[in-house]
Design a protein that fits this description.
The chain has 307 residues and is mostly helical. The protein is 50% helix and 6% strand. Helix 6 packs across helix 9. The protein is globular and about 60 Å long. It binds heme C. The site of heme C has 21 residues, from helix 11 and helix 12.
Length: 307
């Protein structure tokens, strides 16, 4: 009798642990599904949806430059998903992608480094970052993981926005892409769920004298124009980094044009009139955790090009 009861308690305990693991990402799953629904509804028919979603767009823009009827995975390529003009230019550049050399550079760095090979025996890992590290009680982004790896071995600290780290990430992204990997972010503890919540809060908080949040531009504002740019949607924002941009001084001494997600976000936060948090700060890591979770299930497609 007693042993039967003990067995029962053990079975119940195991069940409780198993069901808890699914519990922590309940809200995040809801958020992700709602976001997909929102963007699919928004782009179903922009001309018809003008009052709900595109209050400042001109008739011409809605009719001629926005692709309609987009579905979840179509959103992966940023504003090229809906911008007809942008997409034509993008396809042209993709015929001779300017980032190939960076993948090769990253591969050479990796293949020469015993340290990197030891920390990252598997190179098809871009979709697994950021993750929440229970022991460190912190979100770990891929940039932070690579930097931790080399500094622990006594090597020089890396710039988390460009240069070597961007090359290594280009190689990992390409490897992940070739293997058909998808974004696969997990939230499996209470602390992880709290980190996700803080990242989400950052994303939706208005800042600066303009009172802009990331969401003002990349959720509500997606597909509208800011100066000469069409605003891209949050969905798919993390799947294709690092990116190559002409704007990032392809020919300057300090940058070869390739940059990490952290570099891109720092630019947007500056545009909000704010001083961006450091690439390895808690705020930046948690913001990335939230954003990457929103792209769960979407294919890794980096490196890529952007205007
Ligand atoms: C005033 C509007 C505005 C705000 C606010 C803003 N961004 Fe952006 N963001 C842009 C523009 C313009 C671009 C370039 C065009 C595009 O891809 O959307 C861009 C690009 C990006 C990209 C690259 C997209 C891609 O396809 O590669 C990311 C990622 C991004 N923003 C994240 C953020 C985050 C995170 C925040 C909040 C901290 C934020 N942005 C706030 C205007 C904004």
């Amino acid at each position: 009798m007693l042993s039967k009861m003990i067995k029962m308690v053990i079975v119940l305990a195991i069940f409780a642990v198993a069901s808890n693991a699914g519990k922590y990402d309940k809200q995040a799953q809801k958020d992700r599904k709602a976001l997909i629904k929102y963007f699919e509804a928004k782009f179903e028919d922009p001309e018809k949806n003008r009052n709900n979603f595109f209050p400042y767009s001109t008739d011409k823009e809605l009719k001629e430059n926005i692709t309609k009827g987009l579905k979840h995975h179509d959103f992966a390529i940023g504003n090229y998903a809906f911008s007809k003009q942008g997409k034509a230019q993008y396809d042209e550049i993709k015929e001779m992608p300017p980032y190939e050399e960076f993948i090769e550079k990253g591969e050479a760095i990796y293949k020469k480094s015993k340290v990197l090979q030891k920390c990252f025996p598997d190179t098809k890992i871009s979709g697994e970052y950021p993750y929440f590290d229970k022991k460190k009680n912190s979100v770990i982004t891929l940039s932070v993981a690579i930097n931790d790896c080399v500094t622990k071995a006594g090597e020089k600290k890396l710039n988390l926005k460009k240069g070597k780290i961007a090359h290594i990430e280009a190689y990992f992204a390409d490897q992940s892409k070739q293997a058909g990997k998808k974004t696969n972010i997990k939230i499996n503890s209470k602390k992880a769920a709290e980190a996700y919540d803080r990242g989400k809060k950052y994303y939706y908080s208005q800042r600066g004298y303009l009172k802009l949040s990331c969401a003002s531009c990349h959720v509500q504002g997606a597909a509208q124009r800011v100066r000469n740019e069409s605003l891209s949607q949050l969905l798919g924002h993390t799947t294709h980094f690092p990116v190559y941009r002409l704007k990032w001084g392809a020919k300057s001494k300090t940058s070869d044009g390739l940059g990490t997600l952290e570099r891109r976000m720092a630019g947007c936060i500056k545009d909000e009139g704010q001083v961006p948090p450091k690439a390895d700060s808690k705020e930046m890591k948690e913001l990335l955790y939230f954003m990457a979770y929103m792209s769960n299930g979407m294919k890794i497609d980096g490196p890529d090009i952007r205007k």
